[in-house]
Amino acid sequence: MKTKLIALNVVLVAGIGILAWQVNAGWKQAAAERAANLNVRVRPVTVAPAVPQPKPEGATPAQYARVAENNLFSSDRNPTVVIEPEKKEAPKPMPSLPVVYGVMGLPSGVKAIMAEKPGQDSRGIRAGDTIGEFKVLSLDTQNIKFEWNGKEIARKIDDLVDRSNPRAGGGNTSGPAAPPPAAPGATATPPPPPNAPPAGSTQNQDGSYSVTDKDGKKWIMTRTPFGMMRVPDTRGGR
């Protein structure tokens, strides 16, 4: 047993000696290579002079004309610019002015009996009211001024009077009905005066008359240069 331990120790000592020798030999070789590299003389390298390249020519727009004219993705493309003329809408024609059947100078202001067109229902119009497409800006017994499409239109009352019907009845306006022909041998009863108040009417404070027809509908009768004129009563039973 003792002999084996001694032999093992001898082998270990011999291994350590061989390892130390190899390490020393490697260190010496590395030191020699490092010294050889440090003492090497570097030779200068001769570099040829740079030759300048020719300057490229500048691009001109004419060289790109075919690119603009011939497009692979749009066969109808061309350099011609088409400027479409500006579309101008035709001015809106002004409709016919309203017609007048009479003008009243009331304590509350001037009021005109008007209709949008001849033969239509007439109604009382004051300054600020609208009839059809027209707005009444100002009104007196002689002149009237409308506004239409941002424009002012001034007219005389006489130029707007509806003379197609001498009785100036309009739609809802009417004068006294003509009496029936008298029977043979009978004496004809003369018709009432044009401005006479209707039978069964009640006079109002503004000088007009209130009357109710056989259907129970209430009307206002006013005196005009054309005779008595009838308009619907819209005063709410006053």
Helix/strand class: alpha+beta
Number of strands: 11
Taking pLDDT < 50 over at least 5 consecutive residues as the criterion, the unreliable ranges are 166-192
Tally of helical segments = 3
Strand order of the largest sheet: 4-5-6-7
**Main sheet summary:** 4 strands, antiparallel
User: Helicity, in percent?
Assistant: 10-25%
Tell me about this structure.
It is elongated and about 165 Å long. The longest helix is centred in the N-terminal third of the chain and has 37 residues, at 2-38. The protein is 19% helix and 24% strand. By secondary structure, the protein is of the alpha+beta class. It is built from 3 helices and 11 strands; from the N terminus they run ααβββββββαββββ.
Task: Give keywords.
238 residues; alpha+beta; four-stranded antiparallel sheet; 3 helices; 19% helix; 24% strand; elongated
List the helices and strands and how they pair.
Layout: H1 2-38, H2 65-69, E1 99-106, E2 109-115, E3 123-125, E4 130-131, E5 134-139, E6 143-148, E7 151-156, H3 157-160, E8 202-203, E9 209-212, E10 218-224, E11 227-232
Antiparallel strand pairs: 1-2, 2-3, 4-5, 5-6, 6-7, 8-9, 9-10, 10-11
In short:
The chain has 238 residues and is of the alpha+beta class. The chain is built from three helices and eleven strands; from the N terminus they run ααβββββββαββββ. It has a domain of 62 residues.
